[in-house]
């Protein structure tokens, strides 16, 4: 049976996206401002922010800091969003934090959005656990994102591309302006962007506060697959180096150890089963797909089969035109109805190579039953989560009753 606090949290999922920080600030005050319990580092961008956050948190853990890491979305288990010392928080800790948040929301007569609640829970659990530093991955945008209520030691901004244009703007400068909103007075600013339009916006925002500004071009060897991950690791490493005056326990040795022990699931994650090699990737927009295409071309032997599902609000034509030509067969699926694009529409883009199987588990089973030994499962973090759960259960044909 699902605990009652989790039912309350789950009920907030229908609250939608309501931009603005007034609810966050009111609830923070009601909770005693847990976001100030320890220093914070914030990571914004379009793609790569999760792996960059995870790498930096791993470095700080290896350096001896009790580190809280808040990321989104989760792939299988909700508690993946809140890590302390590299470990998911306990169910008891989560339920206790929800009880505190719910009581504060009732006192303030405020109903937070689902993401606002998740973010406030991060502040609560990290404060309760006496974390020494927290790393926060921005959800969407930056300026009005629920995470943007802290005054961070550093603001990291990963490569910026087009996504969520209905909220963030239709030009790269507009989107960069929203992302730049996480830059506040006193923060060290680091970015791995190389687009002059983006850099101009970020530099201007940093200059408003006379903040140090670093364009990071270095890469760093990482266990995460894909050349682009070396760039993300390079950004995290440079952040740890620049933060030494305030986080002095980071050393070259602890940085190397932290990078080497980084784990970030569902991003070109490899699984070998029954003579087949399966790559799972949560790339969900054109920018992310452009990053994994070179890896597939160089490291996934042909002939290849793709299991593909994507949300209907993405630039589907741009994603499929980049990805589909690499594959000899395509199984279209729907990982998160009703937001998923219909499999019947996706197969039209695949032509003779495509078949539709709306159920993602059945789609994966069909791929494993095929003659193809190289299989890629991509197009959505929801699909990556479904695939990870599928293989973690041994590809069982039955699901838990509550699903």
**Principal-axis shape:** globular
Span from first to last CA? 12 Å
Series of H and E elements: HHEHEEEHHEEHHEHEHHEEHEHEHEHEH
| CA gyration radius, whole angstroms | 21 Å
Helix/strand class: alpha/beta
Low-confidence stretches: 396-403
Percentage of helical residues?
A: 40-55%
Give a short summary of the structure:
The chain has 403 residues and is α/β, with parallel strands linked by helices.
Features of the shown structure:
single chain; 403 residues; alpha/beta; eight-stranded mixed beta sheet; six-stranded mixed beta sheet; 15 helices; 14 strands
Explain what this protein looks like in three dimensions.
- The protein is of the alpha/beta class and 403 residues long.
- It has an 8-stranded mixed sheet with strand order 4-3-2-5-1-6-7-8, with helices on both faces. The protein has a 6-stranded mixed sheet with strand order 9-10-14-11-12-13, sandwiched between helices.
- Strand 9 and strand 10 form a beta hairpin.
- Helix 11 packs parallel to helix 12.
- It is globular.
- It starts with a helix and ends in an 11-residue tail after the last helix.
């Amino acid at each position: 049976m699902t605990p009652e606090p989790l039912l309350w949290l789950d009920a907030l999922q229908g609250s939608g996206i309501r931009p603005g920080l007034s609810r966050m600030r009111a609830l923070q005050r009601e909770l005693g401002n847990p976001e100030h319990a320890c220093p914070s580092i914030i990571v914004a961008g379009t793609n790569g922010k999760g792996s960059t956050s995870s790498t930096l948190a791993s470095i700080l853990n290896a350096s001896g800091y009790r580190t809280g890491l808040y990321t989104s979305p989760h792939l299988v288990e909700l508690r993946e969003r809140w890590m302390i010392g590299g470990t998911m928080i306990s169910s008891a800790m989560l339920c206790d934090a929800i009880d505190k948040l719910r009581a504060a929301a009732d006192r303030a007569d405020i109903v937070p959005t689902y993401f606002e609640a998740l973010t406030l829970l991060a502040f609560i659990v990290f404060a309760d656990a006496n974390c020494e530093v927290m790393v926060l991955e921005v959800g969407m945008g930056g300026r009005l994102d629920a995470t943007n209520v802290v005054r961070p030691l550093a603001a990291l901004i990963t490569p910026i591309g087009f996504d969520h244009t209905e909220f963030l703007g239709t030009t790269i400068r507009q989107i960069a302006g929203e992302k730049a909103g996480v830059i506040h007075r006193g923060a060290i600013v680091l970015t791995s962007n190389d687009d002059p339009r983006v850099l101009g916006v970020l530099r201007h925002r940093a200059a408003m506060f006379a903040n140090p500004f670093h364009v990071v071009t270095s890469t760093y060897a990482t266990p995460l697959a894909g050349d682009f991950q070396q760039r993300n690791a390079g950004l995290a490493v440079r952040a740890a180096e620049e933060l030494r005056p305030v986080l002095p326990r980071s050393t070259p040795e602890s940085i190397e150890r932290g990078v080497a022990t980084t784990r970030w699931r569902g991003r070109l994650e490899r699984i070998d089963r029954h003579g087949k090699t399966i790559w799972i990737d949560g790339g969900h927009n054109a920018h992310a797909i452009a990053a994994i295409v070179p890896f597939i071309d160089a490291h996934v032997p042909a002939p290849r089969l793709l299991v593909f599902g994507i949300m209907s609000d993405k630039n589907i034509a741009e994603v499929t035109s980049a990805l589909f030509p690499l594959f000899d067969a395509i199984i279209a699926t729907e990982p998160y109805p009703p937001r998923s694009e219909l499999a019947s529409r996706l197969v039209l883009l695949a032509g003779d190579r495509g078949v539709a199987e709306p159920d993602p588990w059945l789609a994966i089973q069909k791929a494993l039953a095929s003659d193809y030994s190289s299989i890629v499962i991509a197009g959505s973090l929801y699909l990556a989560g479904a695939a990870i759960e599928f293989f973690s259960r041994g590809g069982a044909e039955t699901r838990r009753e509550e699903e």
